[in-house]
Amino acid sequence: MFMAGLASGIGGTVPALASLSRTAAHNESIRQQNEAAHAINMMVFQAQAEEGKTAREYQKKANELAVKLISDMPSAEVFQHLKFDNIQTEVSKLGAISVKAEANVEGKVTVFDKPGFIDGYVVAEISSVEKKDAGP
To answer: In the chain, what's the furthest Cα-to-Cα distance?
Structure first.
């Protein structure tokens, strides 16, 4: 409007109307761009909110499962449920020792009063009662 008033004072009515028309068209274009940007921002915001909600739901479910499936049972108690069969040992030419065995669960394993399973690994220490002469 300021430009139209300035044009009216300088050139008269016709330039003022032309300036007013250009200003109105320019303002309408800005309004449309702002509305489009607002619509896009709302869609992005809504998508992020949905993703956040879904992520929180998955995290909550994962936390619930972790609490239900992980036990703090001492290893000595875990070993009472294991039975080792078909134990095989092998010593390579270079002296590396390999031990293989089958492990099975005997009895019922429960975790927080729910059926459970045993998962993990066994660390073994191998020792010998023989002493070798180190020489003179």
So the answer is: 121
d(CA 73, CA 111): 9
Angle subtended by helix axes 13-69 and 2-11, to nearest 10? 170
Q: Is the pTM of this model over 0.70?
A: no
- Let me know the angle formed at the C-alpha of 67 by 115 and 119, rounded to the nearest 5 degrees: 55
The C-alpha R_g of the chain, in whole angstroms, comes to 40
**How would you write the pLDDT of the chain (136 residues) with one tens digit per residue?**
444 444 445 555 656 666 667 777 777 888 888 888 888 888 888 888 788 788 888 888 777 665 555 677 788 888 888 898 998 988 888 888 888 888 888 888 877 777 877 877 787 777 777 665 555 5
Query: Nearest-CA neighbor of 33 among 25, 44, 22, 43?
Result: 25
